[in-house]
Design brief:
The chain is built from four helices and three strands; from the N terminus they run ααβααββ. With 121 residues, it is mainly alpha-helical. It folds into two domains: 33 residues; 57 residues, Winged helix-like DNA-binding domain superfamily/Winged helix DNA-binding domain (Arc Repressor Mutant, subunit A, Orthogonal Bundle), CATH 1.10.10.10. The chain is elongated.
Length: 121
């Protein structure tokens, strides 16, 4: 078995050397085809979407404003889910869940069954 694995290793080494030689030839050919002053990028990066295609940024809410909006929405609609409140106040569901967790930790909200929230009185 040792003799067989040694011959397989040798075959693999020879194949790698051939491939490395081919790779070097291909790189030289590519460099010869590139204009002299032009450099190709070293890494490929994902192209950014144009500003017109990105989500609108708009003005940022003042500190604590979203929490106030969330609490007001919960008081107006006790037992609402974070996703419902998110749509109502115009934020993402993940942002609404974060607001709910912070307000719950601060003792301003209590959690009901099924992911529903109610304001503490």
């Amino acid at each position: 078995m040792t003799g067989k694995s040694a011959s397989v290793r040798e075959l693999l080494r020879e194949s790698i050397e051939e491939l490395e030689g081919e790779l070097a030839r291909l790189r030289r050919a590519l460099r010869a085809l590139e204009p002299s002053g032009e450099r190709r990028p070293t890494r490929t990066t994902r192209a950014r979407r144009p500003a017109s295609a990105r989500a609108p940024t708009g003005a940022r809410a003042a500190r604590g404003e979203r929490q106030k909006q969330f609490l007001a929405a919960v008081r107006a609609k006790p037992g609402a889910k974070a996703s419902e409140i998110a749509r109502e106040i115009g934020v993402s569901t993940s942002q609404a869940n974060g607001l709910a967790r912070r307000l719950h930790a601060a003792g301003q909200l209590r959690k009901r069954r099924g992911g529903r929230w109610a304001a503490r009185t």
